[in-house]
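Supplementary Text 2. Reproducibility record for the structural model of the 306-residue chain.

All settings were left at their defaults, and a single model was retained for analysis rather than an ensemble. We include the record here because the model underlies the residue-level annotations in Supplementary Table 4.
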Amino acid sequence: MKSLCVIGSLNMDLVTSVKYFPKPGETIFGESFKTFPGGKGANQAVALGRLGAEVLMVGKVGNDIYGTKYLEVLRNNNVKQDGVLIEEGISSGVAIIQVSSEGENNIVVVSGANDKVDCNYIESKWSLIEEADIFLFQLEIPVNTVINTMKKLKERGKIIILDPAPAAKLPDEIFKYIDYITPNETEIETLVEKKIDNDEDLREAAQVLFDKGVEVVIAKLGSKGASIIKEDEYLNIPGFKVDTVDTTAAGDSFNAGFAFALAEGRSLEECVEFGNAVGAISTTALGAQEAMPTLEKVNEFISKRD
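Retained model, structure tokens:
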């Protein structure tokens, strides 16, 4: 099995459960408050660790209680933390999350130490980084760091997966380094600056990304599953029905499941199905990482549908 490396963010999620999201100027009473480890990068790393992958996390936390806690979380979830530094004089990243009674969420992120993951830091960890085969990126560390790191990895023939989240318009250069890009509907609309209303719109949006250099688009479509889009192929892989509690890390979990299956050498269709399963299971408990499954649980989950 190929080894994996996640280069990205580590946040502590401060989660409030509410009946509904307050309107501007409105004060409501929340139903509960909990603290969970999160951040798109670390979510993907922890999900991979739970599945049993060999995975290295690269990023930074602050010199505070959240940073210390996160190193413990990584260690307890089979994630190598040699690539994570405690940055002095700054807070760890935090995400303030509201989750409604319907399982929807909104999120405010304070980047903290994640903003200090610069190219010099990547260079200082390069001997560890280049040992991996498959790399997962997101957009919660500086984009310049992401682009320059991808470029170096591409020159060495590594496999690169980008989860373009949070949604952002990106420089054209980044796309020529990407093997697999995994946007949801909002993110692909942002990337191509076009509204997506149907499959034809999605194909046209994917073509824009192909023209810029992307190899494969994996479009995450929520309850509808995910679509594999290549220049000459469009295939939808159905999702799984579950009782949703919290969708906070569904996309991160999908990416971890997809990358794990890819590392095992499965077909692209099997990789996306596996990603759909991991993503679905992850929504069945409150908190980004609480319901992330083991390999045994995912295989059992998929077999029940078969």
